[in-house]
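Human: Not sure, check this?
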Amino acid sequence: MSIKFSVYKTPRPKGSKDTLEHARLVSRGTKGLEEICRDLSDACTVNSADIKGVLEALTVYMGRELGYGYSIELEGIGHFSPALRTRKISEENGKIRFSVSVDGVNFRCSNRLKEM
């Protein structure tokens, strides 16, 4: 098992003499839901349709609970939390208010998954 990568020069501000490089993943592709369900089904006694149903139910559950402001910890996978975007708004009367909206989902990988 290995990850392929390429090395690229990191863009630097004009006048900077340091040249830095960084690695970027060369993706082997993306695993879709059908393939994931099939592979998981091959590894256990649960059929592919049941796995797909559980994953769909988990998606709906997570979306609802994240929308209510909860964070979700899936042991061995990671931690999910709502990502917020804040805009500062100056009103005509000089008051300042903030507009806050959900901007996505933050994900922090578990140590177990990271080590794998």
In short: The two ends are 11 Å apart (CA to CA).
